[in-house]
Amino acid sequence: MHELSLAHELLKKLCSLAKQHHADRILEVNVAIGPLSGIVADSFRFGFEALAPANSVTRGAVLVIDSPLPSYKCIHCGNILESQKTHPGCCLRCNRTNFILCGGDELLLLQIKIE
Ligand SMILES: [Zn+2]
Q: 68: burial class by Cβ within 10 Å (0-12, 13-18, 19+)?
């Protein structure tokens, strides 16, 4: 289970962040899971909720998951567009169709609330 190990990584990171900031508890965690990351948000949440209680720092932490749209960059003119689809179609600026993916495939830690 890919998501379980990602959730484990995130929790490890949260514990070290809490330590750095001399916090006793993590209250809330905001992450963004890109739609092309291959990460299933529900499985990730399941993993997080299964593992978080094992540590007093992360016990009871609320996980908030954002799902940003994937973004594409036109290789001809550099225009960036966001699209729900796996290919954005034509570039709105130069009308060509060659893109590289430049977002939406990541897991990002956006924000945490600590106490
Ligand atoms: Zn273009």
A: middle
What digits encode the pLDDT tens for the residues 46-67? 999 999 999 999 999 999 999 8
Coil/strand/helix, residue 100: strand
d(CA 46, CA 55): 16
Confidence of residue 102 (pLDDT cuts 50, 70, 90): confident
CATH fold label, 2-114: hypothetical protein PF0899 fold (3.30.2320)
The alpha carbon of 42 and the centre of ligand 1 are apart by a number of angstroms equal to 35
- What residues does the ion ligand 1 have nearby, CB within 5 Å? 74, 76-77, 79, 91, 93-94
C-beta of residue 29 within 8 angstroms of C-beta of residue 109: yes
